[in-house]
Give the backbone structure.
Amino acid sequence: MPSHSPLRVVLLGYGLAGRVFHAPLIGAEPDLELIGVVTSDPERQAQARADLPGVAILDTAEQAWASGADVAVVVATANSAHVPQARAALEHGLPVVVDKPLAGTAAEAQDLIDLAQAQDRQLHVFQNRRWDSEILTARRAIDEGLVGIPHRLESRFERWRPTPKGGWREEGPAADLPGLLYDLGAHLIDQALHLLGPVQRVFASVRRVRPGMTADDDTQVVLEHVSGAVSILSVSSASAFTGPRLRLLGTGGGLWIDSLDTQEDALRAGRTPGDADWGAEADDALIVTGTESPQSIARARGDWPAYYRGVAASLRGEAPPPVDPRDVVQDLRVIEAAHESGRLGVAVDLDPPAGHVS
């Protein structure tokens, strides 16, 4: 437990992101204290009161700005609100955590970084899936040289939802930043740059295949990395059959992980991140090293709580941000290139290449 008082946090939004992801993860971090939730929806206000006794329920973001100069703001609202609400928090002198996507364009994201620097306040982006079990396992395989030099990453978030659920994520206008490329695709792209380094060329198929869709629901992105490695990424809500969650191939072997990290399922089921078996996966990974036959190895434990642990340490000046916001600017350059590639049907070169700084 910290010897000092926890840092106070106000959460904007209590939909899926705020209720399922952010509130439990903030609550699991002893160096943070959730003191307020902002939502104007009566049903969500009632849900927040039931879930979070003792936490103030606020009607407007303006009430959050008045919570005090020592409060951090977490923006977990609709995608279209991320930039204006992050800007408002920074202009009021408050550090801010923004759910992904940080913005719709790399230029908008860079503007927020510049504002944060001008205000001398921190800007964090919630790329929690860097701490998925499969990504931590792949990171270990690369860092320890278990598969040699990586030359191909295949990574996918695929599901079978033949009937759209509706709402702005599937049927909203472009200004709402709907679609899978800005949603799960933002995670896959961030993970690919995190694992395999800078990207110099992007080719993508960005499609709408289910009736009534106005945003992409079946998208594949191919990234050519500066190293010569290739990432093949797929996000789909129209996949009746799904492949393995991740394959990492290298000059000395390969890694196969069949199933998706289960931390989201645990949070949706109301489990607490402090549980003894948090992040543990029931299935193993398969790995080939050298000429050996495939072997089962235990997957790394997923660790989404590490994100807010890192935010707290960064806010106290004890560590760098868990995710450098400049990384997300580069992710958005790739997302923009993928949209352009899908629209034009050509590969798009990135000059300079898009690469993470952290």
